[in-house]
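Notebook entry, cofactor series.
This is the third protein in the set we're modelling with a bound small molecule. For this one the ligand is 2-acetamido-2-deoxy-beta-D-glucopyranose. I'm keeping the input format identical across the series so the outputs can be compared line by line later. Sequence and SMILES below, as received.
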Amino acid sequence: MKLLAALALTACATASAAAPKWHQLETYTFEQYLVDFNKQYPVSGLASRRSLFDKQLQSVRQHNAGTSTYKQGVNKFTDMTPSEFQMHKGAKRSARPMSINEISHNELLQTIKAGDYADEIDWRKEGVTTPVKNQGGCGSCWAFSGTEVLETHVAIQTGKLIEMAPQEFVSCMPNPDECGGTGGCEGATQWLLFDYAAQNGMTTEESYPYTARDSQCKTPEPVANITGYVRLPTNDYDALMAATQLSSVAITVSASWGAYESGVFNDVDACGFELDHGVVVEGYGTDSTSGEEYWLVRNSWGTSWGEDGYIRLLRNGEDTVGTDTNPADGVACKPYPETQEVKGICGMLSDSSYATGGYLL
Ligand SMILES: *[C@@H]1O[C@H](CO)[C@@H](O)[C@H](O)[C@H]1NC(C)=O
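Returned structure with ligand:
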């Protein structure tokens, strides 16, 4: 029997084609779950896993029987403890303004007048997004979301879509002010990554493969560079709409959505505002069935989670306002603030950034 620690990683890497959908869970069992998600536990650990699974499955069924318009399902997280699930997040926000290499977002707003937006944007349709990735059991969401924005930005600028390496940033990027954590698998922020990339360039996944572990930096061979990046004004709906016309955008959220399967996620209360995860806005639109407006958000938990690795988050301007009561535990740079006001569902408008001036070396 394999040990649990090793399994936390293998479970992440394995997407199951046989996973059931939300309407097939009436008779679903823990035994079938173990098979579908390729999970193996020592006999001594089975009972506690079963109990975690049963509790979560019951909660998923209850949710789906209610009036909510989005659906929950079972996935690799269903039998995890809250702290194991936490390991699959790990990006954060800084409360401190940043200026190095930053261009004025006002220039952008002048170019793209508010309201002058496309009805719908989906950067996937432009062929400038790489396949969904899986960060595994390492708090490297900041490196994944940052890298994914770099990939798309370089593709938009140069016509070349290249799979870049989150591991380069996990292993090499310093984080002296402990922004969003102490670095590597222990967290950082995406704008720090853009700042680092603007000095050091970036390398390919092929030459610096992902290991989901902290390790010593091996000097990478850069293949592309950026001239700078933009940090959007915080909690600004129009700013994010404008930026999405130009680029995919890295955002920070409270990712209390482990059981999400499909639909527009609109449960403001369930999500909360304790920012702990980095993801990417790759567009927005309006759901044809419910009429709900949504943000198209790419996650880094593999394709078996959500809508092929994506979640659609309710897009309701700045109507949702909340307080992150523990920025020190997930989001800020030192000295950590005590609280921070955040807007948008799951606090998604609070810290957005994207790369500028990409070119191939
Ligand atoms: C990336 O560009 C910056 C200037 O914007 C430059 O200082 C740096 O050397 C470049 N890095 C590489 C690897 O080309």
